[in-house]
Design goal:
Layout lengths: L1 H18 L47 E6 L13 E7 L4 E6 L5 E7 L1 E7 L6 E7 L3 E4 L5 E5 L5 E7 L7 E2 H6 L5 H8 L3 H11 L4
Antiparallel strand pairs: 1-2, 2-9, 3-8, 3-10, 4-7, 4-9, 5-6, 5-8
InterPro entries: Cupin_1 (IPR006045), Germin (IPR001929), Germin_Mn-BS (IPR019780), RmlC-like_jellyroll (IPR014710), RmlC_Cupin_sf (IPR011051)
Pfam family, one: Cupin_1
GO molecular function: manganese ion binding
């Protein structure tokens, strides 16, 4: 009986030990799959793999939305591969905006470091809107997959850092999804209730055709 129990516990310990893996630094030379990147050989992993220095510099906000997102996702920071988290820097110039968008792969947590940002999201069950003006030190969470936005609501540049519950949270900006592609104008009209002139105007601004 004792020998049998010892044998069973030995098997359990062996299988659990084999399953333990401290990390899986992504090998960017290999394709990205549903489970992320394949692991870099441990013999080639160094301390530098666990350090990312790209968030100390402001992003370029001289664009249509006057905003810049500097990501430290798995493709930029392979050490987060498989760990279920990532981070990004958000710079918003005066009047800057991150338009209504969603992250299909993860929830988001934003902390304001400088300036003030009006941020909010829309629930999927009843389209209820949750929004608030955030100031330095304030934090807001945006549940996975829900439409949300951030707007610089002050008269100075704003800075925030954003963490995600995924190394690759994904991104879909609603306006670009609707008007930045080649979906025929007639179909866009019917699915958005906008008139032809407005659809064509938005397509021209956002790079769409059709």
């Amino acid at each position: 009986m004792i020998l049998s129990l010892f044998f069973i516990f030995s098997l359990i310990f062996a299988s659990s030990s084999a399953a333990v893996q401290d990390f899986c630094v992504g090998d960017l030379a290999l394709p990205y799959g549903p489970a992320g990147y394949s692991c870099k050989s441990p013999s080639k992993v160094t301390v530098d793999d666990f350090v990312f220095s790209g968030l100390g510099k402001a992003g370029n906000t001289s664009n249509l939305i006057k905003a810049a997102v500097t990501p430290a996702f798995a493709p930029q920071f392979p050490a987060v591969n498989g760990l279920g988290l990532s981070i990004a820097r958000l710079d918003l110039a005066v009047e800057g905006v991150v338009p209504m968008h969603s992250h299909p792969g993860g929830s988001e947590l934003l902390i304001v470091v400088q300036g003030c940002i009006c941020a909010g999201f829309i629930s999927s069950s009843d389209n209820k809107v949750y929004y608030k003006t955030l100031y330095s030190g304030d934090t807001m969470v945006f549940p996975q997959g829900l439409l949300h936005f951030q707007i610089n609501s002050g008269n100075t540049a704003a800075l925030a850092f954003v963490t995600f519950s995924s190394p690759s949270p994904g991104l879909q900006i609603t306006a670009f999804a609707l008007f930045g592609n080649n979906l025929p104008t007639e179909l866009v009209e019917r699915t958005t209730f906008l008139d032809e002139a407005e659809v064509k105007k938005l397509k021209a601004v956002l790079g769409g055709t059709g």
